[in-house]
Signal recognition particle protein (Chlorobium phaeovibrioides), 440 residues
Amino acid sequence: MFESLSDKLDGAFKKLAGQATINEINIGIAMRDIKRALLGADVNYKVVKKLVEDVRQKSLGEGVIKSVSPAQMIVKIVSDELTELMGGEQKPLALSSSRLPAVVMVAGLQGSGKTTFAAKLAKRLKKSGRNPLLVAADVYRPAAVDQLKTLGAEVSVPVFSIEEKDAMKVAMQGLEAAKAGAHDVLIVDTAGRLQIDDAMMAEAEALKNALKPDELLFVVDSMMGQEAVNTAKAFNDRLDFDGVVLTKLDGDSRGGAALSIRHVVEKPIKFMSVGEKVDDLDQFYPDRMAQRILGMGDIVSFVEKAQESLDMEATLQMQKKLMKNEFDLNDFFDQLQQLKKMGSMQSLIEMVPGLNKMVPKQDLENLDFKPIEAIISSMTKEEKSRPEIINGSRRQRIALGSGTRVQDVNMLLKQFGEMKKMMRSVSKLSGNGRKITSQN
Ligand code: GDP
């Protein structure tokens, strides 16, 4: 996710490394690079202009703390600005508890990922103790109803559908079915078209007026870049939706839609979809996303995801070790085992600082951890907890024992070292972040 933008921003920050102070000249150069990086990522021009100007002013302004390096300071300021740009606080789904069922209506272009999202949301709500009903009101695309039924079965949520070409009738009968079946949430999947057209908008508008949804969510494919932003604007002008769901972020290397959409339509991004599987849905946290774009990884999201699927005790210990930088090869090994248990590999790997650089981007889904596991298993207890003692002859023994080559052992140790370094800088950076805020 957003690899190319992250790399370019990283390049801009690197130029500031080693500079003793922030001044007009080095800030000017950094801003030029940041601007290029954002425009190259297909971020809306007006958004870029505003962001660059804000960052420049804050960097040269009063609030700059002398005790942190210019590079750290700028990363912090850019991180804050990106967070703000994407909406600041996380905006949760707001479902009424008094009206039953609460209604979520899902709208967007065909192929944006609406149907998949509806099922993912159903799964999520069910997990949180709700009793949802899905309604297949996409009556034009014949496969849509079957697709929703299949997905519904996968997430164990019932799907209401009838042989009917009138979406309004389907939706209203779905609403009645939800009441009769004591469902407390109704999720209505509506029809999209390949392009914006008046008939689609009119139908969505009529459904909105009839269903009076608690949440009308607009689903959009982030890989469409600025076109996603234009589509969002057109839907919002007509439907005045409540929130945005960004899909296919797993395939988006640029990030233009994620960074521009909130500013352009002034509606929060509530969810992000990061893969085709039913678990590949996350709430959208602007601050975590900003940190991820800046290559700081996303320890918080990672730990949360871990908490959902792992036992709490192990997770808390891992969190403590990450923070205290006491992470050794034993933990690394455990973490690989646990990673395998959790949802989509790609999205998880991206969240762990360092790990995203250690594993090749291609073919992450079929990632083979066996050689890494074999190498670590061939180490002694002491070697695992103190990898620095692994000298040349130990490396040879480990390679022999694990059926790998000495180069593979070297590579693993080098990468593990880099990962630890990265974790240290992440925790330092977040420490500085707090300092800056409290001194301001
Ligand atoms: P709809 O026409 O808007 O209902 O779109 P669908 O839900 O049928 O999704 C269109 C295609 O995009 C399907 O092949 C989905 O599996 C795929 N898809 C949906 N969300 C994501 C996502 O977050 N990442 C990826 N890679 N594919 C997705």
In short: The first strand starts at residue 102 and ends at 108. Residues 108, 110-116, 147, 192, 247-248, 250-251, 273-276, 280 surround guanosine-5'-diphosphate (CB under 6 Å).
